[in-house]
Amino acid sequence: MSQASQNTKSAVLVIFGASGDLTRRKLVPALYHLACAELLPPGAQVLGVAIDELTEQAFRDRLREGMVEYAGIEPDLHGLWPRFAQRLSYMIGDFNDPDTYRRLRERLAQLDAAGGTGGNHLFYLAVPPRFFPMIVRHLGEAGLNHTQKGWTRIVIEKPFGRDLQSARELNEQVHAVFGEDEVYRIDHYLGKDTAQNILFLRFANAIFEPVWNRNYVDNVQISMLESVDVGHRGAYYDQAGVLRDMFQNHMMQLLSLTAMEPPAAFGARALRDEKVKVLSAIRPVDVRDTVRAQYRGFWGTPGVAPGSSTPTYAVLKLFVDNWRWQGVPFYLRSGKALTSKTTDIIVEFRRPPLQMFDLPAGQEYVPNSILIGIQPDEGIHVKFQAKVPGSGREGKPVDMAFHYRSSFGIEKLPDSYEHLLLDVLQGDASLFTRSDEIELAWQVIDPVIQAWESHDEPRLVIYESGSQGPVESDEFISRADRIWCRGCTWHESVQ
Ligand code: BG6
Predict the structure, then answer these.
(1) pTM (2 decimals)?
(2) Is the dihedral of CA 69, 72, 78, 83 positive or negative?
(3) CB distance 344 to ligand 1 below 6 Å
(4) What is the CA radius of gyration of the chain?
(5) Has residue 331 got a pLDDT over 50?
């Protein structure tokens, strides 16, 4: 996956929505890093398309500023920017005007000839979702879904639909123009090294998998907690809410990686087949097994409707009805405007059948657990009981830790967009979401959204901005005599 390789083919990367935030914050910094590391084929070109009246120079300057501001990159440091900037060009275009696509075809022909791109074209839809069907249709009508030589691929950003029905319709619209193997639905969580490491932990080792099932696991907790609030994205977020924004995509992906069976091979088809099996086995969520909440102050955000009941925090308890996970609860929670940013997965194990050692006075037994830290604690922790030195038979939970930074001597992991862009250029769809996966994930989440929107059950609760979240979240999990991240001190040991 994502290594410098002769499989990385040169191409013209056409970014629709090139004047927007995603291009500046993520796509161009990722491409720049790849170019600096000589992972981007020398002939590869970027052509931005957007409605803004920008000259090519203004476009380049804007991207350069974005790299400094958002990605902390100093483009002049190694003198590489001027060479990289040569590869960036811009075209003004209305996405709904056939003439845009006629001109695009001409530009592609010029760039192919100049850059030796082999006729490979990659279309990246970095635009609001209402433009997805329109751009796809126009690409088809202009015959840009095929090239005479080379390949054509399309990358589609999230959100892919806003419910099951619209996701199905969008899949149909896309399939009318592109084959499924040409479509790369992006979920940036899958590009994170730490998310991919779930597979390594489970399937590159022999010691974890034998206990990774209902016989040993008591419960699984996946938390995606954010300190940021919705910021300037009020209008989008008020329409989306936390279930569409975080659960249908990122959360369902982390759950699938954690719960899936070992694939027969490490390839797109086998991997995605196994994820699909997990999603199909999720029992319909009982709304009584949910918590929905909103941070105080959300109403004051520009773009948010007065009196909005959009949730910014949610807890769901799910069950995966298959042989491996029958009866094991998966607790999922995500929210904004919380104390700190943490994404992790905790697999908590059952207690030993017999408790023959004492606990330090006043302390409860802390079960064994494995924590997979996605961010910012990028690593893995195993918590187990050890004998307190000098005591007769007193045990205490201790932590065995692996951290990317110390083990691999790196300060910062590559951004997920670097992995994912390289994968698209290599034609590796393993870390992209297939059409059936998207629909199954909606099938899990959509009924909860609908139930929440049509009944006032469970009631929307308010939590303080900058807090740990609503007390109802703690109360909910404590009803099953569990707590979030039980006895958790892991994050204190981030190196
Ligand atoms: C995005 C959501 O998909 O993921 C955002 O739209 C969220 O609301 C972001 O903040 C979180 O991503 P990361 O990589 O910062 O955890």
Answers:
(1) 0.94
(2) negative
(3) no
(4) 24
(5) yes
